[in-house]
Amino acid sequence: MYHEIADQLIQAITKGQFTSKLPTEAKLMARFGVSRNTIRRAIDVVYQQGLLRRVQGSGYYINHVQLNSKHAVNLSVGAGKPLVKNSPRPTSKIVTFDKAIAATIPLATQFNVEADAEVYRVIRLRYMDAAVYALEESYYLTAVVPFLSTESVNGSIFEFLAETFNIAVIASDDYLSMTKLAEDQATLLDQKPGTHRLTLAQMNYTKNNTLFNFSKTIYADPKMSFYFHSAHLSSN
């Protein structure tokens, strides 16, 4: 329940319905017809995604993050979701979609499963404003993800999994690094082999700390911006 309320609050913030601060907990309780504890858990989800500032004794204020690039990625929300309000959603072109293939030893090590465990492999180009901005290679454990369709792979895979199987990303490990483009990667991104590009590797977990997805996204745009929200507790 609180995740659904958090999604509604995020949508309200994104659409500009709350421009300065959130309503009080009491008003939100009345609005959604839930307990204070549920509201607080929902607010905490929104806060963790970097959209709110907590001011002691005053409430939660909308965090207006200013980044120069409209292709900014909010790692607190999740890669693939635009940070800037009203940004266009990315579209996809499938390069490879393999169903139920055996995991390689390195991939099985990432997932901590046997080497012959079955995975879905999805390689796709991601577009923003009709221009390629990233090459994404991702794997999904079939033991956790029972089905992926071509339609879902063309759109938002995470949204499909959440709506169809109630599989949602509860936590993720994100690793940013500079990598050299291999020849096949360079061809897809219209770059020279050996060119360095920023790469995001992600390990995504659903409930019970279950790792279900490993992905690597290579960004073609050298001007990409990344945002991550962190809260620091005062010792005073």
TrEMBL record:
Q: Which CDD domains match?
A: WHTH_GntR
* Short name of any one Pfam family annotated for the protein: GntR
HTH gntR-type domain span? 1-65
Q: Which InterPro entries does UniProt cross-reference here?
A: Bact_HTH_transcr_reg, Chorismate_lyase_/UTRA_dom_sf, Tscrpt_reg_HTH_GntR, UTRA, WH-like_DNA-bd_sf, WH_DNA-bd_sf
- Give the stretches traversing the membrane: none
Recorded superkingdom? Bacteria
Alphabetically ordered keywords of this record: DNA-binding, Transcription, Transcription regulation
Q: What is this protein called?
A: GntR family transcriptional regulator
